[in-house]
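Blinded run. Sample ID left blank on purpose so nobody reads anything into the name before looking at the predicted structure. Input follows.
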Amino acid sequence: MIFKEGVIDKILFSIILLVIMGAILIFTGGKEKPVLSIKTEAEPAAAVSVDNSGISALEKSLEEKIATNLENIKGVGKTKVLVTYTSSLRKEYARDESITKRTSKETDKEGGTRETVETTETNHLVIAGNANPLIVVEQRPEVAGVLIIAQGASDPKIKEQIFEAVKTLLSIQPSKISVVPLGGV
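Blinded prediction complete.
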């Protein structure tokens, strides 16, 4: 072989890049100036449905983790936890945005000049290989409140330990946490 594999890969990449750039120039015309960019923004709810089971699964998972950890604290006993969120999961999707601007100048018989600017915008979701939109950011919602029902919560010291553990674990305001003793069986 005359060329090493790395050199062939670089040459092949350069050729593909030139072909893509040539295709862009052919399709946009000579006088238009294309501006291509990837833009992220929140997708409107109408375009992509919100998966309500995702938030339920998130709540359930957090509830189970908190309950399991609290039950390991000495004196807490059997524990039930309920977590609520202020909103659903927020996702930002990658978008392919193309803005084309065309400027034309016209001169009339009296010497007056008129300039016209025509702007064309297209905006599409970037689709990953599995036909789903490409997610750039996925943000968990803020915890609205936590209710802890525990056997040992009738003891003020245990109740305070539970309260402090949940406050520290979730880093939320104390007013969003309620700790109560477990009632009858």
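Unblinding after everyone has recorded impressions. The beta strands are 33-42, 79-85, 90-107, 113-125, 135-139, 143-150, 177-181.
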